[in-house]
């Protein structure tokens, strides 16, 4: 039986791991490779590296650290940030990443999803979606969320975009619920369950993890395949071995390490 | 010990080389039949689609080279599927080193395809390739097609249906999952592959 995945997300800026609250005020969390190895040893099932400034700055991911990570890490990892062409994705995959995640560039040019799926297979193509609930109750997509001064609200409904992204060839969806991101009050179960109902490919929850019960809830109530978190892992307030014990005790299938 | 990885154009095959390097083996890519034939160990990695990969092997003139290899050969993921007779993916004839046809995994609303993530291995035959691997150990899978369980199956895994996770017929071996991304268990299987007598 397939395990549910616990996925630390490492936001990368200038070769260092950083973390902010609600995407702002970033503080240094440490060296990329050091943190990656720590999570690997603790039993992380996968890692996501998100170059948070690549897209707003109009540049692609720095391949150097991707290769450094790939040489040392023996669990899968995904790289996100400013990948806007098949060639840029190929460079990141050749450097050793297992998957690429695209967000802003897919919104700018949705055809990119299909181009990547054709070139590398759907299993390599993750579409990241930043979503926020508007006053009318609809969840809508946000763009350029790495830089608050450039973040844009789009007319596109998040749920419509999930359907379109998978139709175009996304092999996995990471839904980052911005309303709950960084505030540690739990994943946005309502939105994730709505997404799950429409999503045939693996769905990863992002935004809001504060304690182990939030992980239990999101797996049980939203039936997501993976749950992603950053600050709670970086700060040590949730340790992955204990988290996995709690998940297993709740009857959720996790990888034994 | 020299490991040659067949360079048939897969996207993230670099990680397989790094995995061998972590084990202290020298590993390099080649698409040259003479280099491949002279290697101590040969790995056929593979990410992508079966028809495209077979076309690529054909284009490179490597089909008969791979079929004729006598030294230990390990197919990884799609590379393992290519060892079988044929694949439903693109309805293509494969290398025919192992009997069986690779078929699409049947998804369902609660069973997502591609099968992506960590799943448990169930060893069904005792073999040196699985030394140190116990029932319930996990490996990292990413695939939408799977090979049938046959007499060549060393370990199975289940995602709705049960399929071949590790196969071996003599010196032809394969892993449906990615040993290079399967943490300690994956490293152990690669190490076992390096140790099997040629």
Automatic annotation (TrEMBL), chain A:
Catalytic activity: 5-[(5-phospho-1-deoxy-D-ribulos-1-ylimino)methylamino]-1-(5-phospho-beta-D-ribosyl)imidazole-4-carboxamide + L-glutamine = D-erythro-1-(imidazol-4-yl)glycerol 3-phosphate + 5-amino-1-(5-phospho-beta-D-ribosyl)imidazole-4-carboxamide + L-glutamate + H(+)
Catalytic-site annotation from UniProt: 11, 130
Domain of life according to the entry: Bacteria
Enzyme class: lyase
InterPro entries on file: Aldolase_TIM (IPR013785), His_biosynth (IPR006062), HisF (IPR004651), IGPS_HisA/HisF (IPR050064), RibuloseP-bd_barrel (IPR011060)
Main location: cytoplasm
Self-association and partners: Heterodimer of HisH and HisF.
Role description: IGPS catalyzes the conversion of PRFAR and glutamine to IGP, AICAR and glutamate. The HisF subunit catalyzes the cyclization activity that produces IGP and AICAR from PRFAR using the ammonia provided by the HisH subunit.
The protein's name in its UniProt record: Imidazole glycerol phosphate synthase subunit HisF
Organism field: Cognatilysobacter xinjiangensis
UniProt lineage: Bacteria, Pseudomonadati, Pseudomonadota, Gammaproteobacteria, Lysobacterales
Gene from which this protein is expressed: hisF
Automatic annotation (TrEMBL), chain B:
Active site: 77, 178, 180
InterPro entries named among the record's database cross-references: Class_I_gatase-like (IPR029062), GATASE (IPR017926), Imidazole-glycPsynth_HisH (IPR010139)
Any Pfam family matching the protein: GATase
Limits of the Glutamine amidotransferase domain: 5-194
Subcellular location: Cytoplasm
Keywords linked to the UniProt accession: Amino-acid biosynthesis, Cytoplasm, Glutamine amidotransferase, Histidine biosynthesis, Hydrolase, Lyase
Signal peptide: none
EC number: 4.3.2.10, 3.5.1.2
Pathway recorded for this protein: Amino-acid biosynthesis; L-histidine biosynthesis; L-histidine from 5-phospho-alpha-D-ribose 1-diphosphate: step 5/9
This protein's record includes keyword Amino-acid biosynthesis: yes
Catalysis: reaction(s): 5-[(5-phospho-1-deoxy-D-ribulos-1-ylimino)methylamino]-1-(5-phospho-beta-D-ribosyl)imidazole-4-carboxamide + L-glutamine = D-erythro-1-(imidazol-4-yl)glycerol 3-phosphate + 5-amino-1-(5-phospho-beta-D-ribosyl)imidazole-4-carboxamide + L-glutamate + H(+); L-glutamine + H2O = L-glutamate + NH4(+)
Coiled-coil zones: none
NCBIfam families per the UniProt record, alphabetical: IMP_synth_hisH
Self-association state and partner proteins as the record states: Heterodimer of HisH and HisF.
Function: IGPS catalyzes the conversion of PRFAR and glutamine to IGP, AICAR and glutamate. The HisH subunit catalyzes the hydrolysis of glutamine to glutamate and ammonia as part of the synthesis of IGP and AICAR. The resulting ammonia molecule is channeled to the active site of HisF.
Classification via HAMAP family: HisH (MF_00278)
Name of the protein in its database record: Imidazole glycerol phosphate synthase subunit HisH
Organism: Cognatilysobacter xinjiangensis
Protein's gene: hisH
């Amino acid at each position: 039986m397939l395990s549910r995945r616990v996925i630390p997300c490492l936001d990368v800026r200038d070769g260092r791991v950083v973390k902010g609250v609600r995407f702002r005020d970033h503080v240094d969390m440490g060296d990329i490779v050091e943190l990656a190895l720590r999570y690997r040893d603790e039993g992380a099932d996968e890692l996501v590296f998100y170059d948070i400034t690549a897209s707003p700055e109009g540049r692609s991911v720095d391949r150097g650290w991707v290769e450094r990570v790939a040489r040392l890490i023996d669990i899968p990892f995904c790289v996100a940030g400013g990948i806007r062409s098949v060639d840029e994705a190929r460079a990141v995959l050749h450097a050793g990443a297992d998957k690429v995640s695209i967000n802003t560039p897919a919104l700018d040019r949705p055809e990119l999803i299909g181009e990547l799926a054709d070139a590398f297979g759907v299993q390599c193509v993750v579409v990241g979606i930043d979503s926020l609930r508007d006053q009318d109750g609809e969840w809508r997509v946000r763009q350029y969320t790495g830089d608050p001064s450039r973040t844009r609200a789009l007319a596109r409904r998040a749920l419509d975009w999930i359907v379109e992204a998978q139709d175009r060839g996304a092999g996995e969806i990471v839904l980052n619920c911005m309303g709950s991101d960084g505030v540690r009050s739990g994943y946005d179960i309502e939105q994730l369950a709505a997404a799950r109902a429409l999503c045939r490919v693996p769905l990863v929850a992002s935004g809001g993890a504060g304690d182990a019960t939030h992980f239990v809830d999101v797996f049980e109530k939203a039936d997501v395949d993976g749950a992603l978190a950053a600050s709670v892992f970086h700060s040590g307030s949730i340790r992955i071995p204990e988290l996995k014990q709690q998940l297993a005790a709740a009857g959720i299938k996790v990888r034994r390490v | 010990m020299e490991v040659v990885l067949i360079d048939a154009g897969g996207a993230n095959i670099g990680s397989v080389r790094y995995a061998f390097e972590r084990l202290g083996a020298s590993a390099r890519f080649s698409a040259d039949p003479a280099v491949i034939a002279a290697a101590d160990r040969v790995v056929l990695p593979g990410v992508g689609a079966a028809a495209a990969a077979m076309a690529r092997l054909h284009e490179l003139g490597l089909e008969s080279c791979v079929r004729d290899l006598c030294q230990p050969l390990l197919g990884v993921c799609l590379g393992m599927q290519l060892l079988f007779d044929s694949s439903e993916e693109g309805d293509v004839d494969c290398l025919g080193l192992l009997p069986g046809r690779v078929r699409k995994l049947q998804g369902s609303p609660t069973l997502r395809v591609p099968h992506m993530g960590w799943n448990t291995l169930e060893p069904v035959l005792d073999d040196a390739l699985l030394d140190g691997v116990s029932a319930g150990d996990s490996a990292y899978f990413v695939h939408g097609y799977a090979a049938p369980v046959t007499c060549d199956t060393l370990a199975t895994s289940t995602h709705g249906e049960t399929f071949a996770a590790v196969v071996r017929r003599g010196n032809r071996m394969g892993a449906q999952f990615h040993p290079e991304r399967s943490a300690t268990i994956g490293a152990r299987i690669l190490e076992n592959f390096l140790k099997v007598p040629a």
